[in-house]
User: Which sequence fits this backbone?
């Protein structure tokens, strides 16, 4: 039998609670502990919520447990990053109560999905999650400091129609400007398991498809460059562009750089005309993306990263599934400063309205996407 549940209350943590939180963290964990600096950052800058559970004896409240919940801008995804219950108060049901609080907070923020990770040897926690309706959807190798694997669980908080998620292997970009190559590697590997998802292949595609210059930093990859890279590797490709181009030139002030962007644009265009890539000078629609998935293809979409990271830059993502309410994405960028791992960037649910807003970049209102199909479909189309 469990312990008798004492009177308690929940409240949001503030900076005055830092010392108590650090002490609780040290009592609960021997490894993978959050530092005072991390907790302070999460309170001040993180897109997060920290809820304290305090028991209320006659003399003064005592911190018994806490919940750390992370939210991800532009998405309908929340993640339970940590639940800690003081060893003296275990068996009182506080863990389950904090799980319920996490679901309530996530729903209040408009989230549809709640995810978490748990050690493979933590049988009590796994039993609780399964009893509360969480389902295992993957495993994360060598996740904890002692090299123990983590099981990945999620729960759909809002009822939506069943969705068949396309099995797209995940690849994290290794450089800030290689989201396009990383996304293309994921798409090609989903269609052909012989595709090597390596850094060498990632950089090779970047060299082939780069625009050379971008608004800032190294050049990213444009839609025509990526389409050519996929075609040269034997895949069938379909491309949508609502702006003829040259693309991204409005964000560059230097006239020499503008000239180079224009030359690269013209070269890609001429190369593409000599292929069988089907190009549509039109806005890509969500209906187009749905048709690609139903036809066995994998869509790559250019979005504005502003709604994810508050940075105004073009960013490639992979669409892995769609239902009536959400579009699901593999995002190749893992922002570790925002406490993200690749768990948070796979099959990320984004509302259809939010996706429509983010899939539009720059002053020219660029909407572009490419669909990659199996090589055999070249003969079928």
Assistant:
């Amino acid at each position: 039998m469990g312990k008798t549940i004492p009177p308690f209350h929940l409240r949001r943590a503030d900076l005055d609670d830092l010392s108590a939180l650090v002490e609780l963290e040290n009592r609960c964990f021997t490894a993978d502990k959050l530092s005072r600096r991390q907790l302070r950052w999460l309170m001040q800058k993180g897109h997060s919520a920290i809820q304290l559970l305090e028991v209320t004896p006659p003399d003064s409240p005592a911190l018994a447990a806490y919940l750390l919940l992370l939210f991800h801008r532009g998405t309908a995804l929340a993640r339970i990053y940590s639940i800690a219950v003081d060893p003296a108060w275990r068996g009182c049901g506080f863990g389950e109560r904090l799980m319920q609080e996490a679901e309530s907070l996530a729903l209040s923020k408009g989230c549809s999905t709640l995810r978490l990770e748990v050690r493979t040897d933590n049988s009590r926690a796994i039993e609780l999650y399964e009893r509360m309706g969480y389902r295992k959807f993957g495993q994360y190798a060598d996740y904890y400091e002692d090299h123990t694997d983590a099981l990945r669980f999620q729960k759909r908080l809002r009822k939506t129609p069943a969705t068949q998620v396309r099995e797209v292997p995940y690849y994290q970009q290794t450089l800030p400007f290689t989201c396009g190559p990383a996304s293309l590697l994921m798409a090609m590997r989903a269609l052909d398991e012989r595709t090597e998802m390596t850094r060498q292949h990632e950089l090779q595609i970047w060299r082939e498809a780069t625009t050379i210059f971008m608004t800032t930093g190294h050049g990213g990859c444009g839609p025509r460059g990526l389409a050519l890279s996929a075609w040269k590797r034997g895949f069938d490709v379909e491309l949508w562009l609502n702006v003829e181009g040259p693309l991204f030139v409005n964000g560059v002030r230097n006239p020499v750089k503008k000239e180079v962007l224009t030359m690269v644009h013209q070269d890609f265009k001429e190369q593409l005309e000599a292929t069988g890539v089907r190009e549509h000078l039109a806005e890509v629609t969500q209906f187009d993306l749905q048709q690609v998935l139903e036809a066995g293809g994998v869509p790559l979409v250019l979005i504005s990263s502003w709604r994810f990271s508050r940075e105004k830059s073009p960013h490639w993502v992979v669409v892995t599934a769609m239902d009536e309410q959400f579009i699901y994405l593999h995002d190749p960028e893992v922002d570790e400063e925002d406490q993200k791992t690749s768990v948070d960037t796979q099959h990320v649910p984004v509302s259809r309205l939010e996706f429509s807003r983010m899939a539009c970049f720059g002053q020219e209102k660029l909407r572009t996407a490419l669909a990659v199909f199996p090589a055999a479909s070249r003969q079928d189309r």
